[in-house]
Amino acid sequence: MHSAPSLLEPFFAVARRDPDRPAVVDNGLVIGYGTLAHWARAVAAAVEPRTDGPQPPVGVVVHHAARDVAALLGVLAAGRSYVPLEAGHPAARLTALVGRAGCREAVATADSGYLPPVEKVIRPRWTPAPPPVPGREPAPLPALPAARAEDPAYMLFTSGSTGEPKGVVVPHRALSAVVPELRRLYGIDADAVVLHFHGAGGDTSLEEILPTLTAGATLVIDDAARERFAQVVADQEVTVAVLPTGFWNSLTGDLLHQGPSRGALPSCLQTLVIGGEAVRADMLERWNRLDRTAGIRLLNTYGSTETALVTHAVPLAGPGAAPLPDTGEDLPIGYPLAHVGQRIDATGELCVSGDGLALGYHDDPGATAARFTASGGTRWYRTGDLVTAAPDGALVFRGRSDHQVKIRGHRVDLLDVEALIGRCEGVSAVAAARVEGPTHTTLAAFFVPVPHHLPDEVAAGIRGQLTLTAPPHLVPSRIVAVTALEQTHTGKVDRNATRDRHLGTGRSGVTSQ
């Protein structure tokens, strides 16, 4: 088995060549490449060294800070894999993920917060790199173990239809394949300033971290970015930003509301990348009405957790954007990147191949075999997304072949939500997604109360239990008691009819990443 290309070597090369070059600006604190590499190597030295046999991932408690970036880089540099543990999620949920992943060690990036119940908790000392001694060459750094191409790089848990999350295992070769493509696609060079908008708990954060730091560019973390996006971009001179489509929708609406004198984005912003949900034509039309957006390249991206970050992209507006094909109200999700193979099967489902594919689902050979198939000597991932091809070859998203939706950019299986609710009170429940206006999709749950229980008390108990055990995107915004669940003519529960009867007509939630 061959070794993976040294993905992080360009990052360490910048640290050796120009240690004072800004690597991360964390809420005003500038951290140079030398210090960030020093932190990463300290983490790499603290975790158990890579062996030839299978090893469990290292848990990393993340808080959206520069130290999280260093911890992830350190684990990858050691040739190991990590599981991100978001500090704001319920402790019971995080402990369950640690158990499912089989973590034996974990990195605690802060002095407070969640501590995983593992054999070894690593608490790095986030001290500056030692200054060079004038006239003396620095001592050579010890070599890091080279990861093999098929060694796991990270494990991310997605919603599962049984109520149990599924751990997607992505290898080092997938990152080595996609990161150079994203540097080219997003226009990230050494002069770029990239906003680190996403928390390190998801794979989208790697779209920001790895292309930036392997290009010698600067990553910006600013806690005010969600409330004052345009101001942060201007203050930090951000050139590239990656945003959830839902946030872009809201941003576009807010800027239009401010009017032409104030509703503008700074001229420093060159590329704006969106993804996570389908893009609506009316929102793109609103975007094109904004002042100074003509100079911003707006990229729509598509990918799955199982296919390493991004597989398809298309410029929707700005420099390099071609006239969009006439596909009605549906905008294209893009064309395959260079490392991606694709085919559309007889049902319209998109299947993807290439070096970006995950190894499969952790400790779940049945689910792996169902989604990852072989044909003609090629391994394919069945995305579950139904697509059609426009005349120019761009793919257009048409729906799902299962019960998955996107809530605030997170992939949610409605059957997962229903299974979680069923554990709470033993009630029968269905979940449904509803598009609320032009900007976001919400999650609702409907249940039939058990006898001798007050509906409001049952609903409150469901919400309380889910808040303790599930991440925020799995907690319905509405939990509604109903006398009966609507049924189809074949006697099956009709979740959308139940939703429309009790909340009004809505559209099914859609997913594009």
Structure description:
- Helix 1 (9-17) packs across helix 2 (33-46) and helix 2 (33-46) packs across helix 3.
- It contains 13 helices and 26 strands.
- The chain is an alpha/beta fold.
- The radius of gyration is 23 Å and the shape is globular.
**Tell me about the biggest sheet?**
14 strands, mixed
The strand count comes to 26
The average pLDDT value, as a whole number, equals 83
Helix content: 25-40%
Fraction in beta strands: 25-35%
Return Rg in Å: 23 Å
- Count of helical regions: 13
Distance between the termini: 31 Å
Alpha-beta classification: alpha/beta
**Molecular shape:** globular
Q: What are the low-pLDDT stretches, counting only 5+ consecutive residues below 50? A: 1-5, 506-513
Please give the structural blueprint.
Layout: H1 9-17, E1 22-26, E2 29-32, H2 33-46, E3 58-62, H3 66-77, E4 82-86, H4 91-101, E5 105-108, E6 120-122, E7 152-158, E8 166-171, H5 172-186, E9 193-195, H6 204-213, E10 218-221, H7 229-236, E11 240-244, H8 245-258, E12 271-275, H9 281-289, E13 297-302, E14 312-317, E15 332-336, E16 340-344, E17 349-354, E18 360-361, H10 365-371, E19 372-375, E20 378-389, E21 395-400, E22 404-407, E23 410-413, H11 414-425, E24 428-436, E25 440-448, H12 455-469, E26 478-481, H13 495-503
Parallel strand pairs: 1-10, 3-4, 3-5, 5-6, 9-10, 9-11, 11-12, 12-13, 25-26
Antiparallel strand pairs: 1-2, 7-8, 8-18, 13-14, 14-15, 15-21, 16-17, 17-20, 19-20, 20-21, 22-23, 24-25
Helix pairs in contact: 1-2, 2-3, 5-6, 8-9, 11-12
